[in-house]
């Protein structure tokens, strides 16, 4: 499990801040090193027309699996973005059936009534490490095989390969979110299991090569982000539980 402790920073200047190259997640190192090895092999045999493009591609692979540190805002009602990317859909929909009702052990899930769903589309240029939207206990993880259509489409929530996760906060608030594979993505990699305790913003998994994450807010909670807004996993506040009302923005 990811270390839940970290350096405290605030809006009054406490803590240290400096720029550094982001780390590469171990899941991606084997892909990057493999790509470098193949490109060097082609360069050694004099096939530079293949070797040099592959070397550039290997740099892209390392960049795809970058894992930067994030400063996670703290608060009892805050829901942070679980993924980097573009807010591509905001809609009132029922939660997925896999997250509704109690599980086999009687643990409660989400209701069947429509709630606000925020969909975050991750392009191949975004960081693909996903993070917990709230602190709490992982109550449910349900993997479902499926298709690999464009993750930007609304029906991808029901037809693509996906993994549902349910987290329950200490006060009983439950939030579900779904990792959805896209056109290029071919594997959803979890870092957690049911029963784990996670901190808000903790790394919980990744999806390889372009995908989407849906977040299902509790009833009576509206989005604090706008359609078309770019969000950062673990840092952008998606919502505050119990807070609702219309927010408007102007693209410019």
From TrEMBL:
One matching Pfam family: PS_Dcarbxylase
Modified residues (Pyruvic acid (Ser)): 211
Post-translational modification: Is synthesized initially as an inactive proenzyme. Formation of the active enzyme involves a self-maturation process in which the active site pyruvoyl group is generated from an internal serine residue via an autocatalytic post-translational modification. Two non-identical subunits are generated from the proenzyme in this reaction, and the pyruvate is formed at the N-terminus of the alpha chain, which is derived from the carboxyl end of the proenzyme.
Major enzyme class: lyase
Membrane topology (UniProt): Peripheral membrane protein
Co-factor note (free text): Binds 1 pyruvoyl group covalently per subunit.
Gene Ontology MF annotations: phosphatidylserine decarboxylase activity
Pathway: Phospholipid metabolism; phosphatidylethanolamine biosynthesis; phosphatidylethanolamine from CDP-diacylglycerol: step 2/2
Keywords: Cell membrane, Decarboxylase, Lipid biosynthesis, Lipid metabolism, Lyase, Membrane, Phospholipid biosynthesis, Phospholipid metabolism, Pyruvate, Transmembrane, Transmembrane helix, Zymogen
Compartments, as annotated in UniProt: Cell membrane
TM ranges: 38-65
Cellular component terms per the entry's GO annotation: plasma membrane
Residues annotated as catalytic: 211
Enzyme Commission number(s) from the entry: 4.1.1.65
UniProt record, GO biological process: phosphatidylethanolamine biosynthetic process
UniProt site (Cleavage (non-hydrolytic)): 210-211
InterPro entries, per the entry: PS_Dcarbxylase, PSD-A
Subunit and partners: Heterodimer of a large membrane-associated beta subunit and a small pyruvoyl-containing alpha subunit.
NCBIfam families tied to this protein: PRK05305.1-2, PRK05305.1-3, PRK05305.2-5
Protein name stated in the entry: Phosphatidylserine decarboxylase proenzyme
């Amino acid at each position: 499990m990811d270390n839940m402790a970290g350096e405290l920073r605030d809006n009054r200047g406490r803590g240290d801040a400096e720029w550094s190259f982001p780390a590469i997640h171990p899941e991606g190192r084997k892909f990057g090193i493999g790509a470098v090895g193949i490109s060097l092999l082609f360069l050694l045999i004099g096939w530079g027309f293949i070797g040099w493009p592959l070397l550039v591609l290997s740099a892209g692979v390392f960049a795809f699996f970058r894992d930067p540190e994030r400063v996670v805002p703290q608060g009892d009602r805050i829901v942070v973005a679980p993924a980097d990317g573009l807010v591509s859909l905001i809609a009132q929909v029922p939660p997925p059936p896999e997250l509704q009702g109690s599980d086999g052990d009687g643990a409660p899930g989400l209701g069947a009534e429509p709630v606000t769903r925020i969909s975050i589309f991750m392009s191949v240029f975004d960081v693909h490490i996903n993070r917990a939207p709230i602190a709490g206990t992982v109550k449910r993880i349900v993997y479902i095989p499926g298709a690999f259509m464009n993750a930007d489409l609304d029906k991808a929530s029901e037809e693509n390969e996906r993994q549902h996760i349910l987290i329950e906060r200490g006060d009983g608030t439950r939030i579900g979110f779904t990792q959805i594979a896209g056109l290029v993505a071919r594997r959803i990699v979890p870092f957690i299991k049911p029963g784990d305790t996670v901190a808000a913003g903790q790394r919980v998994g990744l999806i390889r090569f372009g995908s989407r994450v849906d977040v299902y807010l509790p009833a009576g909670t509206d989005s604090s982000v706008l359609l078309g807004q770019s969000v950062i996993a673990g840092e952008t506040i998606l919502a505050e539980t119990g807070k609702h009302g219309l927010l408007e923005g102007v693209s410019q």
